[in-house]
Description:
The structure is a single chain. By secondary structure, the chain is of the alpha+beta class. The chain folds into 2 domains: 120 residues, Roll (Pnp Oxidase, Chain A); 84 residues, Alpha-Beta Barrel (Split barrel-like), CATH 3.20.180. The chain contains 5 helices and 10 strands. Strands 1, 2, 3, 4, 5, 6 and 7 form a 7-stranded mixed β-sheet that branches. The longest helix has 14 residues.
Amino acid sequence: xxxxHARVTHPSPAExxxxxxxxAQSMTVVSDGLDPVEVHRLDGTPAMGHIHLHEPSExxxxxxxxxxxxxxxxxxxAPTPVRxxxxxxxxxxxxxxxxYSTDAAESTCMEFGQAVFEDHRGRAxxxxxxxxxxxxxxxxxxxxxxxxxxVDDHGELVPLLLRLVQPQPEKGVTRVLPLxxxxxxxxxxxxxxxTHRDVRLPFAKPVARLDQAGPQIHALLAAAxxxxxxxxxxx
Length: 235
C-alpha cells in the first residue's frame, strides 16, 4: 500500500499561536479584581517578554501559594492596508504566581492553562505541550517588515502574482495586497467592491531560515512571469 505524504501549505493553529506570541508588540492582560492592562512594547521587545509560561506543576513547585487567574489577549493585525485588517485573535488563560504589574523589574511567571486561536475558519484549542513541540516560524518576527517593503517598494509586482491563482479569480478585482506570509507561503487578499477573498500561494518548500524567504518570493514572481495566461483582472 502506498503511503500518502500530503504537502503542508498552511501553518497549524499551534504554529500560528506561537508566531503571534513571538511577534506581538502589544497585548491586553485581564486579571481578577483589576482593570484590563494594555501592554505595549515600542522598543521592539515582544509583549510576551513580560510574562513567561510554565507548566502548572513546574510553577507550583517553585512558587507555592495562591494563584491569580489571568487572561492574555492578542489581536493579530495585518501590516498592510487591507480591508478588515484583523487576521486572528489569541487568548491565553492561566494563573499568575503574583499579581501582574507593568512596573515589575522581572518577567512575571504564569502557569499555562490553554491557548485559544480564532480566525475566519473557526476556533482551535492549543495546549502547552503542543506549543513546546512546535518549531518557531523563522519569518514571524520579520513578516511585517517584509510585507510592507513589498507593498511600499515593489507594489507594482503584487498584481503579477494573480497569474498563479488557480482557478483564476473572478473579474472585477479592484485591489490586491499581501495579507500574510509564513514559512509555507504567501496569502493575498483580493478586494472587490463590497467584499474580498483570500488566496494562498504556497512556496515550493517551507522556509527553514529567514534568508530563504526572499528567494522564495522571487521564485513565485518568476513563476508568475512564466504563466501563459495574461492578467486582465484589475479594472
